[in-house]
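#data-curation
PF: Archiving a pair of folding outputs for the training set. Convention for this channel: one message per protein, sequence first, structure tokens after, nothing in between. First:
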Amino acid sequence: MQKFKTVHILFACLPFVLCLFTQTTKAQWYDPDKVNKQAAEHYARAYEAANAGQYNIAFEEIKASLAIDPKLVDAYLSRAGIYANLKQYNNSVADFDIALNMDSVYSSTFLLPYSISLAGCGRFTEALDAVNRFLANPSLNQQSIKAGHYRQSSYAFALDYAKQHPATDYVFAPLNLGDSINTRELEYFPSLTIEGSKMIFTRRVDQDEDFYESDLDNGNWTKAKPLSGKVNTNLNEGAQNISQDGQMLVFTGCNYPEGEGSCDLYYSIKNNSGWTEAQNMGRQINTEFWESSPSLSPDKKSLYFSSNRNGGYGGKDIWVSHRLTNGRWGTPENLGPTINTVGDEGCPFMHADNQTLYFNSNGHPGYGLTDLYLSRKTSDSTWGSPENLGYPVNTIDDEGSLIVAADGKTSYYASDRSDSKGGLDLYKFTLREDLRPIQTYWVRGKVYDKKTTLGLPSAVELTDLNTRSLITRIQTDEDGNYLVTLPVGKDYAFNVNRQGYLFYSDHFYMKQQGTDSAYTKDIALVPIEAGAAVILNNTFFNSKEFNLQPASTGELDKLVILLNQNPNMKILISGFTDNIGQDKDNLLLSNNRAKAVVSYLTNKGIAATRLSFKGWGAQKPIAENGTENGRAQNRRTELSVLSN
């Protein structure tokens, strides 16, 4: 009778424990039928309390039973099971060890849950040994054999992963975000704006999910409060992602009256009154099936999400929809068998670098249950093989969502660690170096009319300065506000265009960026009219030379387009130098540089009668020549409109 209760307490506390044997193991000294009667009564009450989830009472009753009979092996085994259910694996292993040392034959029935608790402590070598001993028993039924082989393969994976990733000085030390964020309720699904100063997360109170926000103020998070506006309702809103510019929230809404299925994807826009009422993302995105856990790309042109719709590779797959030129979302595409498996994939998170995708899966090799992975984009439509994030980020338990800040190393996730305020809390930790995305900076600001100062909706383009290939093209909002991310590792040409205005150009050298940098750049576009002028910031020459560098062609080709769009416009190209060197040499150099630009334009078919050039040497400086930065600004090429 007592052994029956031991097994069933372990059933209640360890969902993965099976009916282990087809017959009872014999030849042990411990006899559960000869337990002290009073100890057995305490133990029986512990059994009832454990089944009811009243673990504190169960612990007290087990303690009382052991005070009467210190050799009550079942009590240690059952307490080990309760500790495992509470994810207190060290305590669980300690009790299993006591039971195994007391009677290894009787306790061998529980070598499988013992191995699981060992693995929960990261002791995978010992866990593999324990499960191998478990599988060596010829009396196991098929269900137990299957469970043992599953754990055996996960422990082998863990040991192989450790060999492939030798120990370094990396320390995994999750930090609870504290009382301003975490409560006795459940907090999960963190999401951040690009600068990492605002966090939005889901909190569940009495089975109702709502969104909360907190701001980072001098290194501390402010007291979280519900999002203002109309996005929170008496229905369930969760699994959200805020756009990098903080203006759009995409999320999961379940059982909404207008929903296409049980859970659909919705969006809300931030305005002066807070967040707007939720809008269904439409039938192109949502189906009669399940859609959840959306993530926007930093340019808001791609939407990643999880769905169990038809056409996938398993249960839940990760899909992506790309925004069309008309602003609508295109038909979702499955990310393919490199990412998706016969199991479930979910919780996608696209980093600010727009190249590194984090997600969870129970279909790829791992530590057991659901692990976290990353995959790096190799082209617009292909992905690299998923990389397991490894122990101790991944454990034998289910891992949920993970996000990584723009710095590429600060990560946030939800966990029910021993120091949680209650259930799931939000934590941050430093990501291991080889698992990091590309560190990403950004430029944000407002495009406006130079004469009226009114905001201008405009196109913002970012291209690779060296290859001239387009990296991203975004549209500002109606007020001209924009945000563009700048992953480290490339040098960028930056252009802003709007019909009827001279284009604006700039560049950002990020190939070897080593310090934290973000840029705020408000851009005044100049209407096309006589006297209007702009600096061609992406027209380059080598020092003391007048041959155009190849990186100049991207900007000059835009100038060709501008001239073709305005066939009556005549322009003057002016060259300038700093004050280093002889005046006559500077004058000649600047004149030849201006002439080189005009020659490029005529070679592209622009009539020479529309083009003039002039070199000014060191005249008309726009900055002090006393610093290198000032001299660099003075070395420039300008475009002036003569007539239109």
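PF: Second:
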Amino acid sequence: MANKDDQFKKVISHAKEYGYIFPSSEIYDGLSAVYDYAQNGAELKKNIREYWWKAMVQLHDNIVGIDASIFMHPTTWKASGHVDAFNDPMIDNKDSKKRYRADVLVEDYVAKIEAKIDKEVAKAKKRFGDDFDKEQFVSTHPRVVKYTEQANAILKRLGQSLEKEDLADVKALIEELGIADPDTGSKNWTDVKQFNLMFGTKLGASADTAMDLYLRPETAQGIFVNFLNVQKTGRMKIPFGIAQTGKAFRNEIVARQFIFRMREFEQMEMQYFIKPGSQKEWYDYWKEARLKWHLSLGMGKDNYRFHDHEKLAHYADAAADIEFKFPFGFKELEGIHSRTDFDLSQHEEFSNKKLQYFDPEENKSYVPYVLETSIGLDRMFLAVFSNSLQEEELENGTTRTVLKLPAVLAPTKVAILPLVKKAGLPEIAKKIYEDLKWDFNITYDEKDAVGRRYRRQDAAGTPFCVTVDHDTLEDNTVTLRHRDTMEQKRVKIEELRDLVDQEVNIKHWLKKVQ
């Protein structure tokens, strides 16, 4: 466990040291679970958003994007169920006075059981080598089977208790498992209570007439209330989708694990409006399509898994998470939910406006069903960043820290480095810089020995370095160095643009999704 903690601490400190993420208002000692994206972080975040948007909107002729406002009429949240049911189960420790999410305490307990399974698998893999059959081992090894049954039984009971709102049983489960306060080891718990997560605010100049509003806890409702506007103005035929990215706000009981769970975060969501009865087929389609999108970034198939929900929201008829292996274990990265006609029917009822689609093929109107894909942009950032940060042992016995970001997402694509600050080399380097900056986000660096500059760019995640040296004066060639392999080759200056474009152009990456 300590090893995982150490790795995660390295991720957090590296993110700050290399200009990716700063604690918010740090000069005033910061604000709990609020972070600022720094100069490199803002670029990486923008690139992830664009990679999602292009795949979702540009490459689908029946999906369009909107940007709805953060403030919405308060009845929206009554209709959506957030006013009455947007709660987390909360438990306090009487001795430490610390507050925890009850379900997360249980899930963390299960994660420790899963870590034991991983340990057994790793041991067996070492023992059997190439002959190792993971599926057979997991389904037949007595200890692993026992751990799996234990983990499943705990999660099933938790899911059922939360669904029935049997909070007394959630507390009983915590006590039966002997779960202690992670900080102090105390097992002196209060009862479990529900805690509403919405941030309230007011709209209006005077206290008497101000309207009570909420900061939106999700971006989806902005899509649902605009369903008919988009459908009519875009002359959209079912099936069609509406996508959007934007900020959402949740007053998390325990915001933790860096940017994994924050109070202000960004979502990338797409609501797909479909004919009732076709939801199973679209659910399977979007599960596969979204996993393909993730895999196109080349972060390793073994780092993803599907988790089908035991506990479904009352309106859903199927739900699954794509989980990613973060430094602290497998956790939800994206949700795919079959939401039936709940959302549009609720808004129809509360607004007294018809939100129906006239289907010319069926010659009738109906409230469409909805298939949702929802991913946290900050979580995606953490998945990409933590997976990319690596310590490598080199042949000469030294180590290097390298941030192997997918080149398509890297904030800076190329660093231009003159070998020395004289002999006309900086002038040529600056000319290359001026030429390439129209196509790529690039940087110029002439300080320190070139080896040190390479290391700096490796740690910052820059996929390519271009070195201008004395030979450049003779033959108009430069050294192009690859971050991941450290391979260096001489190329003509006029070939640079095409060579870099082959590696970083979004088109070449997204073609893997098609």
